[in-house]
Automatic annotation (TrEMBL), chain A:
Location in the cell: Nucleus
GO biological process, one term: leading strand elongation
Entry similarity comment: Belongs to the PCNA family.
Protein name: DNA sliding clamp PCNA
Proliferating cell nuclear antigen PCNA N-terminal domain sequence ranges: 1-124
UniProt entry keywords in alphabetical sequence: DNA replication, DNA-binding, Nucleus
Organism: Ceratosolen solmsi marchali
Residue ranges of domain Proliferating cell nuclear antigen PCNA C-terminal in the record: 127-254
One Gene Ontology cellular component: PCNA complex
Classification via Pfam families: PCNA_C, PCNA_N
Function comment: This protein is an auxiliary protein of DNA polymerase delta and is involved in the control of eukaryotic DNA replication by increasing the polymerase's processivity during elongation of the leading strand.
MF GO annotations: chromatin binding; DNA binding; DNA polymerase processivity factor activity
Gene that this polypeptide is encoded by: LOC105367570
Automatic annotation (TrEMBL), chain B:
GO molecular function, one term: crossover junction DNA endonuclease activity
Localization annotation: Nucleus
Descriptive protein name: DNA repair protein complementing XP-G cells
Species of origin: Ceratosolen solmsi marchali
Region annotation Disordered: where it falls in the sequence: 419-441, 466-492
GO cellular component: nucleus
Needed co-factor(s): Mg(2+)
Regions that span the bilayer: none
Keywords assigned by UniProt, alphabetized: Coiled coil, DNA damage, DNA repair, Endonuclease, Hydrolase, Magnesium, Metal-binding, Nuclease, Nucleus, Phosphoprotein
GO terms, biological process: nucleotide-excision repair
Residue span, XPG N-terminal domain: 1-98
Gene designation per UniProt: LOC105369039
Family matches, as InterPro entries: 5-3_exonuclease_C_sf (IPR036279), HhH2 (IPR008918), PIN-like_dom_sf (IPR029060), XPG-I_dom (IPR006086), XPG/Rad2 (IPR006084), XPG/Rad2_eukaryotes (IPR001044), XPG_CS (IPR019974), XPG_DNA_repair_N (IPR006085)
Similarity comment text for this entry: Belongs to the XPG/RAD2 endonuclease family. GEN subfamily.
Pfam family, one: XPG_N
Length: 261, 1155
């Protein structure tokens, strides 16, 4: 039997909001250590990796490892039925066909139960190699979201160039070019508001705006976003989910055709 | 078109793929299908064909590919493999046969329906009156009625047609039977009509008084019945209601008035109860007991009531007869026509008229007229003596039957007329004989009986095609013919045919029978025919249909020709014979026409007329079937020979005057006949050419090729057949003539084949032209293409195999058999999602490797083989599961299967269900055809490994091209091309995440979407591939442990349960098993697994022997596999075996301990 309880459904809500653009369905791997989701988007360009540790839950029980295919759309709908203060409990039996969402209001007066059918889907597990990234940039997630949004009006792709001085976002399109530079914050009061660049060597990569705009949907989860980049390696865009876990987005870069041929 | 049903089977393995994902991929595109699409008519949205539509289509598709940054490689078809040609030809043939059969069935259905109507009518009517009379035959008729009921109910609408034609002739013969047959139509017509009749119209008033009376009474009677049906007529507003009511009252009054008027007008003359009864039945009112009351009340003429009683009796009797009579009612008609020559003559002329005029539109007035006349005739009938009355009424139904057929198709009528002619002849003979021996009356009855049987047989033949029914025919013949030797010979012949069990021969037999009847001398001839009969194959059907169903040929000349190509020389001979006889008949008739002697011949006179018609028809048909021209020619040729032979035979003194006369006539004017035929040939030639020209567009290359072949074959036959015949002929002069004719014909053939060759070229030119244009366009786009030496799919698969492409875009499932690995389906179908199919997925889910897919194709049919009829993909899967093959010998399994099947499908473990499913399967000779496998495994491909390069589209040239070919303006062109070019211009391409991370993908289980049967079969297939090894191992293990039987027995005795055994095994320190047990979560579980293993081993135990040297190793492997295959094999539960197996198990464990 699997059971996991979160004091506030808000976290789960936000997580779902953060992935629902990219994923239509995903396999939730539940084990003793927690819940893991790893799924590629439809076009297999990006990867979402969600990790919720078991110790982050109020109550967590998992007798047997489970792989539950869930329709993200349906799940989002169900979670919308919960108010953010509600306690949410996920429950499933061994070899489940269904997963049950139980929402309990704060004053324990209301108890709603939703049962969702699990779906049968391909299980794809990507072996993500441990990579030492040339550049790791930490910046306010709000800022990043803003930049992505703004630049995507100019072009379909954003080039991110990272150097000692700072990080530069560029987009070029039919109407013109857009260029945003962020310098490393010298000293910050709060770590979340700072732009911190940890760079071994400069990197310049191009990514599709579409995906970046999907990633920044995770902004409510965390004030700070961590971008890790290396040459010709997918961008990693990481948001912490409280103290319960994290969500990482991997995005394959766009490569110049000349290089390829 | 690929492997039949394969896509459907593997559909579940397809994964929808976003087109973005295909970016940058090199995909081979199978264009062969596109060309086919173009051939079959590439249309715009309005359904009009647009010039260069195929190029527009191609253009758009290229744009689509480029937009998604796919790197396409277009692959064109080179040639068509021989196997494929054959299969398509065969398919087409089968299709045409099927349509023919369907046509026949349809006709049968309709005739059945008519019969049913007759029977029902008489049954309804005559039930109470004539039980005595009816009883003996009643059973028969009801049986037939029952059998026909099934089909009838569904066919009702067709009758309208038939009824029409019946009506058109009714006025002449006006009989009850045809009346009755009208009823269904009337029902349909009347129920809607009667209340819509406007009583005040002039038309109505012009109707005869009695008709008006009928209608009006009916109106009155039925007014209340369907008030619900007219509820919609009620006015919506309540204010209008009273007006409505008044209107209705007025109308009623009108009806009443006109009724009274009609009554007055009628006085007391014509309206009979019969008529009323008829009308009522026609309108769907049952006129049985209840109507008795009504009749009396409405009609005060008691005399008529008696009349009414009488005719039904006759009716009943006759119609019962009738109901027994089937198609050959005509023959009966003829037999009676002998009794009553005048009648029959008129009827014949009628029938011929009907044949021609049956398409006349239905006339309502006529209908009424026939009613009237019917009444008159019933009166007449009642006056007639029973003997006379019977034939008369029978004649009429026969005629009506004829007419009902005439409602169908012209050819049908032709055949019937033809048949009737033959039957007539026969009956003529019969009657003459009968009169000499027993007298007319008896003969007519006798004949009827005979005919009945014949007909029964006929109907059964038509419906179920039971060959044995022929026997009944022969029996009847024997009975009939006891007295006369001629008939004996006839029956003999039928018997001989019987032995051949070729049903279709029947028609030709009848022809030959006629011949025997005509003159004894012909017996030799018919014997000849008989000998040929024995050689006949099913293909005879086609030849028969040639002689009988002319228009069928007209409709489907190509299939017909295909049939004839299939004909072996023998069968062709026979075909010709049949035709020849037919023509001889005709000639005889013609000649008799000239002389016109005996009374009997007055009939033939009429026949001859009809025959002339047939002749003409035949001409037309022959012309239309240009491919069979040679046949025709040969026919004529044969005719001549035949005539000659008859001449020779004529030297023997003749016995029967009339017939000899005809023969003499023949003799006298064979030259004339030859002349005629020559003329015909000429005509044919002319028409041939014209038709060739006409059909050039429709003709596909292979068909024309086929024609050529056929012609060649025919030529060959022509020589082989004709020459010996000529040699038999007595007059050398004739021979010469024939020779000259032959030469001429050969010349003609040459010409025709030449013209066909030209056409062929033209036809291929169309294809090539399209290909060239398409390639031109591709060049402008800078897209590489290759022309495969043979099949494009094979080339695509090859390109994929040598990693030049990443996949193939095609909708043709053949690609799997050629070794395709990644196939994108529905790419250009905007209504469907693009599906990606992987051969690995297919292998994973269905355990079907490429070899197995080829085997599957052999079973279900593909482009290269028509497969086994009655085997679908699921059954095929089961067969494959039951008869596994191995890598070395792909066909081993299927060979085993076919031998198993031929051996009578012995039940073997795992094959019981299969046996049930294969009831209707027919395995053709040489079934697992190695050539097909070879064609798939080693297709002819271009093996160049040169990689492809893509250029940039030449926009300027493209714009010009679009303007020239499609008439696109610059603007429109840019509108289409700009987004594409923008995409192309993007110099960055999105990488997939998979290129960075290693993907371990476990495809989802698709079991839920599969049927149980498929699941089982797949499971079995999966196990088989494993068990080929495991069984060997298990067997080996067993052998190694044979020595320790005693101990094994101990276990057997000691334990009926498995649980203890397992424990004992453990005790015995059987390492592996105990391990196994330890691993199990529970003992019970283990028990099941043990059982499973045992069953598996019993299932498979069959085969190989290997050296004992590997025993230990293999045993270990066996156990390994055993562990793996825990899941399967829980299907069979046999306790006995299981106990026995325990021993094996024990031994196994023993051995392991010992070894």
């Amino acid at each position: 039997m699997f059971e996991a309880r979160l004091a506030q459904s808000a976290i789960l809500k936000k997580v779902l909001e953060a992935v629902k653009d990219l994923l239509t369905e995903a396999t939730f791997e539940c084990s003793d250590s927690g819940i893991q989701v790893q799924a590629m988007d439809n076009a297999h360009v990006s990867l979402v990796s969600l990790n919720l540790r078991s110790d982050g839950f109020d109550k967590y029980r998992c007798d047997r490892n489970l792989s539950m295919g869930m329709n993200i759309g349906t799940m989002t709908k169900i979670l919308r039925c919960a108010s953010s203060e509600d306690t949410v409990t996920l429950r499933a039996w061994d070899n489940p066909d269904n997963i049950i969402f139980i929402f309990e209001s704060q004053n324990k007066e209301k108890l709603s139960e939703y049962e969702m059918k699990l779906i049968n889907m391909d299980q794809e597990h990507l072996g993500i190699p441990e990579t030492v990234y040339s550049c790791v940039v930490k910046m306010p997630s709000q800022e990043f979201a803003r930049i992505c949004k703004d630049l995507s009006q100019f072009g379909e792709a954003i080039t991110i160039a990272c150097s000692k001085e700072g990080i530069k976002f560029t987009a070029a399109g039919d109407y013109g070019n857009a260029n945003i530079k962020l310098a490393q914050t010298a000293e910050a009061d709060k770590e979340e508001e700072a732009v911190i660049i940890d760079m071994q060597e400069p990197v310049k990569l191009t990514f599709a705006c579409r995906y970046l705009n999907s990633f920044v949907k995770a902004t409510p989860l965390c004030a700070q976003v961590k971008l890790s980049m290396s040459g010709d390696v997918p961008l990693v865009c990481e948001y912490q989910i409280g103290d319960i876990g994290h969500i990482r987005y991997y995005l394959a870069p766009k490569i110049d055709d000349d290089e390829e041929n | 078109m690929g492997v039949i049903g394969l896509w459907r089977l593997i559909d579940a393995t397809g994964k929808p793929v976003p087109l973005e994902k295909l970016e940058g991929k090199v995909l081979a595109i199978d264009v062969s299908i596109w060309i086919h699409q173009v051939i079959q008519g590439y249309q715009d949205r309005q359904g009009n064909s647009i010039p260069n539509a195929h190029l527009i289509g191609l253009f758009n598709r290229i744009c689509k590919l480029m937009y998604f940054k796919i790197k396409p490689v277009f692959v064109f078809d080179g040639g068509v493999p021989l196997l494929k040609k054959k299969t398509t030809a065969l398919r087409r043939k089968l299709k045409s046969i099927a349509t023919c059969k369907a046509q026949k069935l349809k006709n049968d259905l309709i005739s059945n329906l008519m019969k049913y109507a007759v029977v029902k009518g008489t049954l309804d009517k005559g039930n109470e009156d004539s039980e005595n009379n009816a009883k003996p035959r009643f059973t028969d008729s009801t049986v037939i009625a029952d059998s026909s009921k099934f089909d009838d109910m569904y066919k009702l609408p067709d009758i309208v047609n038939d009824g029409k034609s019946v009506n058109s002739d009714d006025y002449q013969d006006s009989d009850e039977e045809s009346e009755l047959e009208l009823s269904p139509r009337k029902q349909a017509r009347w129920i809607g009509n009667i209340h819509n009749v406007n009583v005040n119209t002039e038309e109505f008033k012009n109707l005869p008084a009695d008709v008006r009376y009928d209608i009006l009474t009916d109106l009155k009677e039925t007014r209340k019945q369907n008030s619900w049906g007219r509820i919609h007529e009620l006015p919506a507003g309540s204010n209008n209601y009273s007006g409505f009511q008044v209107k209705r009252l007025l109308k009623r009054r009108y009806v009443q008035e006109s009724l009274e008027f009609a009554e007055k007008e009628m006085g007391g003359k014509t309206l009979t109860l019969e008529e009323l009864d008829k009308l009522l039945t026609d309108q769907g009112i049952q006129t049985t007991q209840n109507d008795e009351m009504f009749r009396i009340a409405s009609d005060s003429k008691t005399r008529v009531i008696y009349m009414k009683d009488k005719p039904p009796i006759q009716n009943n009797e006759n119609s019962n007869d009738l109901s027994n009579l089937n198609l050959n009612e005509l023959s009966e008609q003829d037999s009676h026509s002998n009794d009553k020559c005048i009648d029959s003559v008129s009827i014949k002329s009628d029938s011929s008229v009907a044949v021609i005029d049956n398409m006349n539109a239905y006339d309502f007035d006529e209908d009424w007229y026939s009613d009237e006349s019917f009444a008159e005739t019933t009166l007449n009938d009642s006056k007639l003596l029973t003997k006379n009355a019977i034939p008369k009424t029978i004649i009429n139904p026969a005629l009506s039957y004829m007419l009902e057929n005439s409602g169908l198709t012209r050819d049908q009528i032709m055949t019937i007329v033809e048949q009737s002619k033959k039957n007539k002849k026969r009956s003529d003979d019969n009657s003459s004989q009968g009169s000499s021996k027993r007298g007319k009356k008896w003969n007519s009855r006798y004949l009827r009986n005979k005919c009945k049987r014949k007909i029964l047989f006929d109907s059964s033949k038509r419906k179920a095609e039971i060959p044995n029914s022929l026997e009944s025919a022969t029996e009847s013949d024997v009975l009939d013919v006891e007295d006369s030797q001629k008939f004996n010979s006839e029956s003999q012949e039928i018997k001989s045919i019987d032995s051949n069990k070729i049903i279709t021969m029947e028609s030709s037999d009848s022809e030959s029978n006629d011949f025997i009847e005509i003159s004894e001398q012909f017996n030799t001839k018919t014997q000849q025919i008989r000998t040929h009969d024995s050689n006949k194959t099913i293909i005879m059907e086609s030849s028969d249909s040639e002689s009988n169903d002319f228009i069928e040929i007209q409709d489907v000349p190509i299939p017909e020709s295909m049939d004839s190509t299939k004909l072996k020389s023998n069968s062709i001979q026979i075909t010709i014979k049949a035709d020849e006889e037919l023509q001889d008949d005709m000639f005889a008739d013609v000649f008799s026409d000239i002389h016109n002697k005996a009374d009997v011949f007055s009939d033939i006179d009429n026949k001859a007329d009809v025959f002339n018609d047939i002749d003409i028809k035949a001409d037309i048909v022959d012309k239309s079937k240009l491919k069979l021209v040679d046949n025709q020619e040969k026919d004529i040729f044969k005719d001549n020979v035949f005539a000659k032979i008859t001449e020779g035979e004529n030297s023997i003194p003749d016995e029967e005057l009339n017939i000899t006369e005809s023969v003499i006539l023949k003799k006298a004017s064979p030259d004339v006949a030859v002349m005629e035929t020559n003329i015909k040939i000429k005509d044919d030639d002319i028409h041939k050419d014209s038709i060739v020209e006409k059909s050039e567009t429709s003709l596909i290359t292979d068909s024309s090729e086929r024609l050529k072949d056929e012609e060649l074959q025919k030529e060959h036959n022509y020589e082989t057949i004709a020459v010996p015949k000529v040699s038999t002929s007595i007059f050398p002069l004739e021979e010469k003539e024939l020779e000259s004719m032959k030469k001429r014909l050969e010349l003609d053939q040459q010409q025709i084949s030449e013209s066909l060759g030209k056409l062929e070229r033209q036809a291929t030119d169309v294809n090539d032209q399209m290909k060239i244009e398409a390639q031109e366009l591709l060049q402008l786009f800078g897209i590489p293409y290759i022309v495969a030496p043979m099949e494009a799919e094979a080339q695509c698969a090859y390109l994929e195999q040598i990693k030049l492409t990443d996949g193939t875009i095609t909708d043709d499932s053949d690609i799997w058999l050629f070794g395709g690995e990644c196939v994108y389906k529905n790419f250009f179908d905007n209504n469907k999602k693009v599906l990606q199919f992987l051969s690995s997925d297919i292998n994973h889910h269905f355990k079907l490797s490429r070899n197995e897919l080829i085997l599957l194709a052999l079973l279900v049919g593909s482009d290269y083989t028509s497969g086994l009829s009655g085997v679908g993909p699921v059954t095929a899967l089961e067969i494959l599961a039951a008869f596994p093959s191995d890598e070395k010998d792909i066909l081993r399994g299927l060979r085993a299967f076919s031998s198993w099947y031929r051996a009578g499908k012995l039940s073997a473990p795992g094959k019981a269900t299969l046996r049930n499913k294969l009831k209707n399967v027919h395995i053709e000779r040489g079934f697992p055809n190695q050539a097909i496998v070879q064609a798939y495994v080693c297709p002819l491909v271009d093996e160049s490994k040169e990689s492809f390069t893509w250029g940039k589209p030449n926009l300027i040239l493209l714009a010009d091209y679009a303007k020239k070919k499609f008439g696109w303006t610059k603007l429109k062109f840019e509108e289409i091309i700009t987004p594409v070019m923008k995409k192309v211009a993007e110099n960055k391409s999105q990488r997939g995440i998979e290129s960075y991370f290693k993907v371990q993908s476990v495809p989802k289980s698709i079991e839920t979407t599969l049927s149980k049967r498929i699941q089982l079969a797949v499971q079995q297939l999966g196990n088989k591939s494993q068990n080929i090894h495991t069984t060997d191992e298990i067997e080996k293990v067993k052998r190694t442990t044979k020595s320790s039987v005693g101990k094994g027995r101990k276990f057997k005795e000691g334990t009926k349960e498995l649980l203890p055994i397992a424990e004992i095994n453990e005790d015995e320190k059987t390492v592996e098993i105990s391990q196994e047990v330890d691993e199990q979560p529970s003992q019970g579980n283990n028990k099941i697994q043990l059982k499973k293993l045992m069953n598996a081993s019993t299932d498979i135990i069959p085969q190989k022997e290997q050296d004992k040297a590997n025993a230990l190793k293999s045993k270990l492997r066996a156990i390994e596999i055993f562990r793996k295959s825990k899941k399967g094999l829980n299907r069979i539960k046999k306790v006995k075996k299981f106990v026995k197996q325990i021993k094996d198990e024990a031994e196994l464990s023993e051995s392991s301990s010992s070894s």
